[in-house]
Amino acid sequence: MNMILSPIPWLLVIPLAGATLTMLLPYHWRSAASVVGIFTQLMASVILWYQVTHYGPQFYAMADWQAPLGISLRADGLATLFVLMSSLVASACAFYAHHYLSLHKRANFWPLLWFLWASLNGIWLAADTFNLYVGLELLTFAAVGLVAFASDERSLEASIRYLYAALLGSMAYLLGVALLYGAQGTLAMDSLAETWQWGPTTQVAVTLILGGLLLKTAVFPLHTWLPPAHGGALTPVSALLSALVIKASFYILLRFWIEFQIYQFLPSLSQLLGALGAGAILWGGWMALRQTHLKMVVAYSTVAQIGYMTLMFPLLVAENSEASMLAYQGGILMLLAHAFAKAGMFLAAGNLIFCTGKPDLVSLAGMSRYRPLNIFAFGLAGVSLMGLPPSGGFNAKWMLLQSSFMSGQWWWIVVLLLGSLLSAAYIFRVFAYTYQETDALDTYKRPRLSLELIALSLSGISILLGFASLWPLEMISLPGPVMEALP
Amino acid sequence: MDTNLIFTLCGVGLCGLGFFGFIYHRHLLRRLIAFNLIGNGTFLVMVGFAQRGQGVTDHVIQALVLTGIVVAVAATALGLVLIRRWFQLKGSTQLPEDDAS
Fold first, then answer.
1. Which residues contact A11 (CB under 8 A, 6 or more apart)?
2. Domain count across chain A
């Protein structure tokens, strides 16, 4: 298909052009140019969604250079869903940033945002393992730059830690890819899946790739870089990082796990992943309960939520196709609900901190009376994160529970329930602070209504997902490489 | 012994050395250099392991290594900028040890 008709190249070209253009334009023009870019991006995502649902998976070779030397891209249902998710969340965060940041900050925010967006789309659409590596590295650079953007000592320290952890992770991934290429002679995902053979080299390669991706996704106990980076960044950046960036390495892990049918051959490794997920849920929830700063609570909640997504791996069992399907769908829905809920929660938390001017929980006193709309946005996101009905998070947890029942792995049920209790505890703890009344006369700043509405709409989407779960689930069930590889 | 096998083994050795340095050292520049060692080791493994026993050059892998080198240079540059800023702010070449994680 030529370039004009297919939306796939535009999903990469527009953000890359946006990154370059916004670096060159004078400050006052950068926001206007970015708004145009955001709308074309949303349009391209919707066109891609239309094409994939009506005509099946789409393939595209950049500039008609075929693999192995060219860059080939593909969009199946899963990739399209992720493109749509990142377009929606990134647009919301971009508009938030436009109102939230000062002119000078904003001007330098745009190029980094566009690089981030380009690398995200590159990862969702990549059809070979090496392009995934390039996407991961570009994503790291953009994300580290954005964390350092808060330009204080704490965020600088966090960004250096983040950079080192991420570099180590991507090098391990690249070494794994090199070994895979040496063993199998190809880099393309589909031909790797066809000719996949287990041997010592492949096993070492899978171990390296797994380790690297777990470090980049911040799965417990490799999560220590995450809370300072996500909690210390500027608010729109925190939302982008927690909602989208960690999902990229998780997405690659998921594709490897299912498309190369690793889950069939290494069930004990799946159980290990599940154990790490359980550790993340319990430790992340416990640490969130003990934080004194609002954004750190939200950041540790991300650690716990990554655990829920990781729980889908042990539930993908070859013998039970129904349980596997439920686990796959539940895991993806969990990821989707978390993306919207966490972005909404971070933005709402940022608004509250803007009001009080202090980052700690104690100074939230009286906020539920003073900023009810904002507390409502925080609460809606909390409902989805706790997994209360009706919300996307509830449906996702329900499916994971059912899948655990069906495959007879009762121990994950215990973890899921304990995790929900912990998340309820840390979210209600935040609420308790907002209901406190202090005698001290405080001065509060009033955030713009648009900032509160953006947070509210993101949280609202995570609730709406509870009513419209079928739609994303149908989308990821469209025929494609992942569906073929599931039992 | 095939030259490519020697490359591979050297690469694995470099990766191991780099990994050790990355974990062991606290000085930020040393860790960045250790990262570069891991990177170079990886590239040697890529070239050597993919071309072992073939006797012909594999263009794909050379293109990949070139891309990889560009990415590693960019990573090093970003790391250096952050380390320099850290040094300007704190006058220190290492991160404070984390007491609670």
1. A41, A44, A45, A48, A83, A121, A125
2. 1
Cα(A485)–Cα(A410) distance, rounded to whole angstroms?
25
**Is B51 a domain residue?**
yes
Coil, strand or helix at A58: strand
CATH of the domain at B57: 1.10.287.3510
Q: How far apart are CA B83 and CA B74, in angstroms?
A: 14
Q: What confidence tens digit (pLDDT) does each residue in A56-84 have?
A: 888 888 777 776 677 888 898 899 999 99
Average pLDDT over residues A349-361: 87
d(CA B24, CA A277): 28
Q: How distant is the Cα of A171 from the closest Cα of chain B, in angstroms?
A: 7
Residue A362 pLDDT > 50, yes or no? yes
* Total of domains in chain B: 1
Estimate to the nearest angstrom the gap between the alpha carbon of A464 and the chain centroid: 18
Q: Is residue B52 one of the residues assigned to a domain? A: yes
The answer to whether residue A213 neighbours chain B at the CB level (below 8 Å) is no
Compute the distance between CA of residue A19 and CA of residue A113 in angstroms, rounded to an integer.
8
Q: Determine contact: A156 vs chain B, CB below 8 A.
A: yes
**Residue A340 lies inside a defined structural domain of this protein:** yes
CA distance B17 to B20: 5
Domain range holding B77? 3-90
Indicate yes or no: CB of B60 within 8 angstroms of CB of A137: no
pLDDT at A439: 65
Distances (CA, A) of A267 to A221, A264, A274, A310: 21, 6, 11, 14
Whether the per-residue pLDDT at B100 is higher than 50: the answer is no
Mean pLDDT of A334-350: 94
For the stretch A237-270, pLDDT in tens is 999 999 999 999 999 999 999 988 888 888 888 8
pTM of the model as a whole: 0.93
A213-247 exposure pattern, b = at least 16 Cβ within 10 A, e = fewer:
bbbbbbbbebbebbbbbbbbbbbbbbbbbbbbbbb
**A134, A140, A168: best to mutate for the B interface, most B CBs within 10 A:** A168
Amino acid at A401: L
| Nearest chain A CA: its distance from B3 CA (Å) | 15
Asked if A207 and A173 count as a contact pair (C-beta separation under 8 A), the reply is no
Q: Which domain holds residue A453?
A: 280-487
Instruction: For residue A285, tell me if it sits in a domain.
Output: yes
Highest average pLDDT, of A55-64, A277-286, A348-357, comes from A277-286
Residues B86, B91: Cα–Cα separation, whole Å: 7
Residues B13-71: pLDDT tens digits? 999 999 999 989 888 999 999 999 999 999 999 888 877 766 677 788 888 899 999 99
In a domain, B18, yes or no: yes
Mean per-residue pLDDT for A415-431? 92
Q: Closest approach of chain A CAs to the CA of B82, in angstroms?
A: 7
Whether residue B100 lies inside any domain: the answer is: no
Interface size, chain A vs chain B, as Cβ–Cβ contacts under 8 Å: 87
Nearest to B71 among A137, A156, A161 (CB): A137
Q: Do residues A280 and A304 make contact, with C-beta atoms less than 8 angstroms apart?
A: yes
pLDDT, position A4: 65
